[in-house]
Structures are given as C-alpha cells and as structure tokens.
Design a protein that fits this description.
The protein has 315 residues and is of the alpha/beta class. It contains 10 helices and 9 strands. 36% of the residues lie in helices and 20% in strands. The chain has a 9-stranded mixed β-sheet, with helices on both faces. Helix 5 crosses helix 6.
C-alpha cells in the first residue's frame, strides 16, 4: 500500500512538472523575468513575463496584464509595474500566441488556454491570493480580457477592459479595408461572409457570445468616446449584454453622435472621478460591474484600472 502511494505521488509530481513548465529556476528576485510555461493545449513552451515587486504581499494579489492586438508579451507598461511595486502585487504578462495575425492567436482555444496555464504556473510556484486574481488590458488586451472573463470566469476576482472589441464581426466590418481586416482574414482564413464555418468562428471568439446578465465576474468597462480605432459601441454593447435595460438605444446613439452626449444624463453619468481625471459622459453600475465613457480616444488609464481592481475580491 505504501509503495502504491509513493508511486502515485511520483506520478502526480511528474504530471505537474509537465503541465506547469520546464523552467528549472523559479524567479525570486524583484524585477521583470521571462519564463517559459508548457501549454496544456499543444505541449509547446509558451513565454510569459513575470514582474515581482521588491516587497511581495503574502499572499500576493496577481494582476494578469494582456497585450494589445498587434503586439507580443514584449509590450511593457511601466505604470502597471509601478502600481504593482507599490501594492506588493505580482504581474503576469502572457504572450497568448502573440499578434493577432495567425490562426493560433486572436482568442483561439490555444491562446485562451495559454493564459489559464500561465496563471496556474504562478499559483503553483508563488503564494498567490486566490481571492485576488485580476485581469486587465486595453484595445486587443481589452478584447481578450472580456473574452477570458466571459468564457473562463472561474479564476478571476474582477476584470478591467478598456477600449476593447466585443464583437469581432462588427469590428471586421469597420476595418475590412485596413491592416486589421487583413489580420483577421489571416486568423480565420477569410471574412465572416466567406463561409458559415468562418462566421461561426468569428462568433465563438467574440466576447459578446459569453457576456450576459448571469455573468459572475465583476467587469470594469471603459472607453474613450472619440475612439476612431475601436468604436465606443463595443464597450456599450458589452454593458448592455451584462445589464439589459440599463442602457437604452437612444443613449447609445447619442454617445455615438457628435454633440453633448446623453439627452438626460443622471448625476452619476457626469460625476467627476479624481482617479480617472477625465470628463465623464456616461457611468452606469449594474450589480458588481460598471461602464465608463470618458473624454478621450483609443487609450487607457492603468492607474484607474488598478485602483478599481484593488477593491474587488472573489466571493
């Protein structure tokens, strides 16, 4: 009986080593470290960056920062790292198959699994506060934040998505003639009109497919009203999916047109937010989630995102 237990323990240790990566030395010194983590989707080693503050909270909150549409894990945000340094958080920056210009990227099952595998790797090697694992990103990172929070809600205490894409088909329609349309055709093998199977894949990788009123992860959705890259409509539609009836079509159309904004804003819609530091055209709260439309374009404010996340806890 003792021999069986020992054999079982060896088997579990071997399996964990295989799934959680092949890196011999786990970083312990402060700073930014590149690690390689074995993908449970296809067995490949996938890179991530890990940022460790000089004074690590115990247990430590984990912020998972997702890169934008055309970039890789080499994209670095000094504000997020500075916030993590001050707060004692770990920051994880997975690659999730890099730029969205090939089939394995753009929210594919493998890209999603890479993020989950990287989180498990960090949880395995560090004392992580499981009640405070957060997602955040902007643009393509906001897209992936919404997709992961909707499709894989289990690990996340909360998620903050800025100027994100909620409907890939709608975004393709807006960008079919530019580089983003070309990148999506490379990802999916054609446009949504090319075949039913390609259209289905566009839908399967769109956050709106998974966001609804039963959504469990608190979501902080934010967008600049005058964004010319990702229409503010994507953020508004995501909030409508989370909270039907909270935002009318009249409100949406008013925010899409030039002009003062909402025809009848509430006090909360135009209240000042000293953390964000921008004029606000819309702020609505539904349950544990909120939407903010601010004066600006295709941009994000990571200090505001991190401040909101810090107040959230997994139930």
């Amino acid at each position: 009986m003792q021999l069986r237990r020992t054999s079982a323990a060896i088997l579990l240790t071997t399996l964990a080593t295989t799934l959680l990566g092949a890196q011999a030395a786990v970083p312990s010194s402060p700073g930014r470290h590149r690690v390689e983590i074995r993908s449970s989707a296809d067995g490949t080693l996938q890179p991530s960056y890990l940022y460790l503050p000089s004074r690590l909270a115990r247990p430590a909150p984990l912020a998972v920062l997702l890169h934008t549409w055309s970039f890789t894990l080499e994209q670095r945000d000094s504000t997020v790292e500075a916030e993590a340094q001050t707060r004692g958080w770990i920051v994880l920056e997975p690659n999730f198959r890099g730029p969205n210009d090939h089939p394995e990227a753009c929210g594919s099952p493998a890209a999603q699994q890479d993020i989950l595998d990287a989180v498990e790797w960090v949880r395995w090697h560090y004392q992580v506060d499981d009640r405070r694992i957060y997602l955040l990103g902007w643009s393509g990172g906001g897209y992936m934040t919404m997709l992961m929070a909707g499709h894989h809600p289990e690990p996340w205490a909360a998620a903050s998505a800025w100027v994100g894409i909620s409907d890939l088909r709608d975004w393709y329609t807006a960008h079919r003639e530019d580089q983003y349309g070309e990148m999506m055709r490379a990802c999916f093998g054609g446009s949504p009109a090319a075949s039913d199977s390609i259209a289905a894949e566009f839908q399967a990788r769109s956050p709106l497919t998974y966001l609804n009123s039963r959504h469990r992860v608190p979501l902080d959705l934010a967008a600049g009203r005058f964004d010319s890259t990702v229409s503010v409509r994507h953020t508004l539609r995501a909030f409508q999916a989370l909270a039907p009836g909270t935002l009318t079509e009249t409100d949406v159309e008013a925010l899409l047109r030039p002009g003062p904004g909402l025809p009848r804003p509430s006090a909360a819609d135009t209240a000042t937010d000293p953390v964000l530091g921008r004029r606000i055209y819309l702020r609505r709260i539904a349950g544990t989630s909120r939407v903010t439309i601010f004066e600006g374009g295709h941009e994000w404010h990571p200090h505001a995102a991190m401040t909101w996340l810090a107040a959230q806890r997994h139930p």
